Amino acid sequence: xxxxxxKPKVQETVTLPERLVEFMKYANELIVQEDEAATISSxxxxxxxxxxxxxxxxxxxxxxxxxxxxxxxxxxxKQTRKKxxxxxxxxxxxxxxxxxLTELTMWACSSPDCGCKFQTxxxxxxxxxxxxTPAT
Length: 136
Ligand SMILES: [Zn+2]
Known about the structure:
Elements: E1 2-4, E2 9-15, H1 18-32, H2 36-39, E3 46-51, E4 54-61, E5 68-74, E6 83-89, H3 90-97, E7 103-109, E8 117-118, E9 130-132
Antiparallel strand pairs: 1-9, 2-7, 3-4, 4-5, 5-6, 7-8
The structure holds zinc ion (ZN).
The site of zinc ion has 7 residues, from loops.
C-alpha cells in the first residue's frame, strides 16, 4: 500500500525560464482573444506541445467566470518528471507575458533528483511524499 508521508519542502525564489514565459505569452493571447480554452474552466484546455507527444505545460481556468488559473509546467524538455504546479491570476499572467513579473516563490522537494516544485509547502509530491508499506 502507498501511504502519504509528506517531506518538508524548501522555499525558493525561481526566475521564470524562457520556455515558461513563452507558454504564459501563449496563455495570455488566449485570454485576450477570449478563446474558449481560457474562458471555460478546465484542467488542461490551455496547452502547448514542445516536441511531438510532449507538453511544455498545460493548465486552465479554475472556475467559470473566475480569474484564477492553475498550471503544470514540465521543467525538463521531453520529461514529465520535473513538474512545477502553481496557480496564477489573470493579472499575473499578463505581467509575466509583458516581462513585468519574472520570479515566483515556490516550494521545492528537498530530494535533489526530484525537481518538482509547488506553490505551497503543503502540496504533495507524487514521487517523494509517499512510501510503500512493506508487504508482510
Ligand atoms: Zn518530489
